[in-house]
Amino acid sequence: MSFETPLPPYNASDPRATFLSSSCFDLLLIEMVPLAHRIAAELSARRKGGSKTVDEEEQREAALRRLDTLGYRVGQGLLERFSRDRPRFADTLDMIKFLCKDLWTLVFKKQIDNLKTNHRGVYVLTDNAFRPFARMSLSSRPEAVIMAQPFLRFPCGVIRGALHGMGVDVTVQAETSELPGATFQIKAINSKG
Asked: Contact at 8 Å (CB) between 168 and 192?
């Protein structure tokens, strides 16, 4: 277990501030996908009356939805906690920069490696060494890239939840073509302010 010195953004004057071992957090992120699949399988079996004939695609989608929802709630909570002492953001690009620099550092201990935009509501974030993938024991076969896709749903939810908390509704898609890298595409739907 490591007890690393926390990196900004954190509020040192907050008496309720607590910190988490980054090793435990990495392992939790890795275990969330199998847990979501087990929960989806159990819920699906209960709905079918204990029958073992379960639609695997439906079960898979339910697990991915659960991961996205968990990430969404985490993103909203992190935003509420760590942006309250900051001035309001001027535009969506400033919000995305906050996400890439501060929020990503808080969650994954590093900044996003690359941010690209077309200045029309589409942003592409690239993390060349996505932290949860670094601890996974995946082979370099093409099947490993396919197996890694579900692990991107939680961070997609974090991005969506944080941006929604700032007043921007977005859709987030993630992909990986070479491990341990990950690319997140954010499309703004509309803005509240």
From this structure: yes
